[in-house]
Specification:
This protein is 46% helix and 18% strand. The chain is α/β, with parallel strands linked by helices. Strands 1, 2, 3, 4, 5 and 11 form a six-stranded mixed sheet that branches. α10 packs across α11. The longest helix is centred in the N-terminal third of the chain and has 32 residues.
Length: 310
């Protein structure tokens, strides 16, 4: 073979190898860009764990999306949402008033009590009219339970206490009463405590609407297409959990804070139901009504435009 031909073949081979390496590198980069991580923040509670069972245990094919779960208490999540920390986050509806510019509400994933809700309990028997004379331990000023209680009575004294320490605060005399937003709603009587008011019952009597506590919000900067895609997977996770209730409940039990299976099942059923899968217009109206009343009574500083994805 002529020397010139040999040189040509060698150069051609080197170019071919370089091209192959470039193609391989580009394919790796393309694969990397196809996988998008979505941060999903929610509380370490049995009802939220039940809701996200399908996603958290990789039961669903999410294509090019990877979901990273972050667990924090609801008051912390409300505060983080104001900073826009997570792509998707559980929030109190009260907190939505302060993040509506950054987040839209997903049309599923809500905790809504129909004729039941947060309960104020006390060591001694009191009527609801006594609240102005009681110091109440509350789980956070951005919670929907706090907003509902302020709508009911704007002039009570309060102290913020972590939600899972409120019963102990009441029993120990740190507060006269406590606003319960979680499983303590089911067993406070067994601890010798007395109901002062069930805010869900009060709200239903006034409005004939359910009382919305919390929902899932998604960051607007993701863009409409990705917001809808993520929304679809989260809806599928809730549907999957409801259709595989026994398995989802077993998973959720690790977050049940010493509840037995029967009590955990009852608690989950209260807050993961048909309105969780779809607010319906009645549920959406309940959210609008709660936030409007908060604004009209001067608790929320601005009127809130409630916007759902899709």
């Amino acid at each position: 073979m002529p020397l010139s031909a040999t040189r040509f073949t060698t150069k051609s081979s080197k170019r071919s190898q370089q091209f192959s390496r470039t193609v391989e590198s580009n394919l790796k980069m393309a694969t990397a860009t196809e996988t998008r991580t979505i941060t999903v923040a929610h509380s370490p509670d049995s009802d939220d764990a039940f809701m996200f069972y399908g996603l958290a245990t990789n039961k669903l094919d999410t294509g090019g999306l990877r979901f990273e779960h972050v667990l924090k208490d609801i008051q912390t999540l409300n505060e983080e949402a104001r900073r826009g920390t997570y792509d998707v986050t559980a929030i109190s509806f009260h907190a939505y008033a302060y993040i509506a510019d950054k987040y839209a509400l997903l049309p599923h994933g809500a905790s809504i009590g129909d004729n039941y809700g947060p309960i104020v309990v006390a060591r001694e028997a009191h009527s609801a009219e006594d609240l102005s004379n009681l110091k109440v331990a509350v789980p956070g000023t951005l919670t929907s339970a706090f907003l509902a209680l302020k709508i009911f009575n704007p002039s009570f004294e309060y102290e913020v206490v972590p939600f899972d320490q409120i019963i102990a605060a009441v029993q120990g005399g740190q507060a006269d009463a406590g606003l319960l937003i979680h499983e303590g709603q089911l067993f406070y009587k067994n601890l010798g405590l007395h109901k002062v008011i069930d805010l869900g019952e009060w709200w239903h009597d006034r409005t004939n609407l359910p009382l919305p506590m919390g929902g899932n919000a998604i960051k607007r900067e993701l863009g409409e297409d990705l917001m809808r895609k993520v929304s679809g997977y989260l809806h599928e996770s809730i549907r999957y959990s409801l259709e595989h209730r026994e398995d989802a409940l077993k998973y959720a039990m690790q977050f049940a804070r010493d509840m037995d299976t029967r009590l955990a099942d009852r608690f989950v059923a209260m807050w993961v139901n048909d309105l969780t899968l779809d607010y319906t217009e009645r549920g959406r109206e309940a959210v609008r009504r709660l936030l409007n009343e908060g604004y009209e009574r001067g608790i929320i500083p601005n009127r809130v435009e409630v916007e759902f994805v899709g």
